[in-house]
Amino acid sequence: QAADKQGYKHYMLKEIHEQPKVMQDTLEGRISQTSVLPEILGSQASLILPHVEQVHVIACGTSFHAGMVARYWIEKIAGLPCMVEVASEYRYRDVVVPPNTLFVCISQSGETADTLAALRFARQAGYLATLAICNVPGSSLIRETDLALMTRAGPEIGVASTKAFTTQLIALMLLTLVLRRVRQAASRGQDTCEQRIVSALHALPDKINRVLALDEQIEAYAQSFADKQHALFLGRGTQYPIAMEGALKLKEISYIHAEAYPAGELKHGPLALVDKEMPVVAIAPHDDLLEKLKSNLQEVQARGGQVLVFADGAARVGAEMGLAVLHMPEVIDELAPILYTLPLQLLAYHVAVLKGTDVDQPRNLAKSVTVE
Ligand code: G6P
Known about the structure:
Layout: H1 11-17, H2 19-27, H3 45-48, E1 54-59, H4 61-76, E2 82-86, H5 87-90, E3 101-107, H6 113-122, E4 129-134, H7 140-144, E5 147-150, H8 163-184, H9 192-212, H10 215-226, E6 230-235, H11 239-254, E7 257-262, E8 280-284, H12 290-302, E9 307-312, H13 317-321, E10 324-328, H14 336-355
Parallel strand pairs: 1-2, 1-3, 3-4, 4-5, 6-7, 6-8, 8-9, 9-10
Helix pairs in contact: 2-8, 2-9, 4-8, 4-11, 9-14, 10-14, 11-14
C-alpha cells in the first residue's frame, strides 16, 4: 500500500500534488489555444443548451462548494440565473422549477445517496435536461443523466476531497464557457472573454506548481493552528465558497472547529468571537472586493485576532497592514478560486499532521455516503 503513495506520507498529500497533472488531463482535448472545443458535452448538447434560461446546481460536501463557485461564474460569465443547494435540503423541499432550467449535479463518486435522490426527483420535475459533473465513469449518476462532463482526477483515496474538487472547478468553468458561447452565438465574432480565460487555463497548472512550492511556508504557519480550538475563514465573492472549503478541510482532518464567513457578514455576529485564541484566515486576491476585505481585516486586527492572509503581490496587504501574508502568484480573477484552494488544502494537511490525526481516514467520515 505504501507503494501506492509514491513516497508521500499520506494519500491526501499525494493527491494534492497530483493537481497540476489531473487539471491538465481534465482540459485535454477540450480546449484549443483560445477557445473551448465544440461538443465537449456530446452531440445532444447542441440541441438542448440553446434553450437553457437558468441553472439549478445540486451536490453535497466539497462538491457543493464547487457548485457555489460555479454560481458566480454562470451568472457573471454566462449571464444566466443560477441557484445552488445541498442535495439533502433540495430533495425534501417543494422546488418550483422555472421553464427551461438545466439541472446540474456534481459528485466525485457519482453514488452519494442524497445527490442521486435529488437527480431522481429532478428527472420527474420538468427540467429541460440533467447534466452530471462526475469523476467515476459508469457510476449511477452518469448512467441516469442526459449529459455528462467527466472530471479526470483519477481515483481519490483520501476521504478529504482535494483533486476531485479542483477538477470539478475546471469542468464547471468549461461548462460556463459553453453556456456563454451558446448565448453569444448570435453576436458572432471573437469572444475576448473566452480567449482570456482559456489562455489562463493553459497557464494554470504551472501556477499550481508554484503554489505547491510554498509548502514549507504553509507548514510553518500551521504551527499556530495546531493548539487552537477554533478558526475563522473569510472570503468575498468566489472566495467565499473557497473559504467554506478551507474550513471544511480543517474540520474534517484536524478536528478543529472552523467556520467560513463571507467577510461582509463579520460585523453581524462572528466578530464577537474574535480574540487571540481565534486564528483568522483571509483569502485576499487583488480583485474588486479587496478594499472591502481589507477593512474587514482591520476590524479583526483591532480586536487582537491573529490573521493569516493569502494574497498576491498586487494586493499590498502585508506591507500596508502588517499582517502575516503568504504571497500567491497572480492569476486572472475568474481562476483565482482554483489557485487559492491549494494553500488551504496544505494548511489543513499540515495542521492534521501536527495533531497526529488519521489524515486519510478521519474519524466518523466516509469517502462516499451511499445511504441517507
Ligand atoms: C462525503 C465525502 C466528501 C464529499 C461528499 C460528497 O462526505 O467525505 O469528501 O465531498 O461525500 O461526495 P461526492 O462523491 O458526491 O462528491
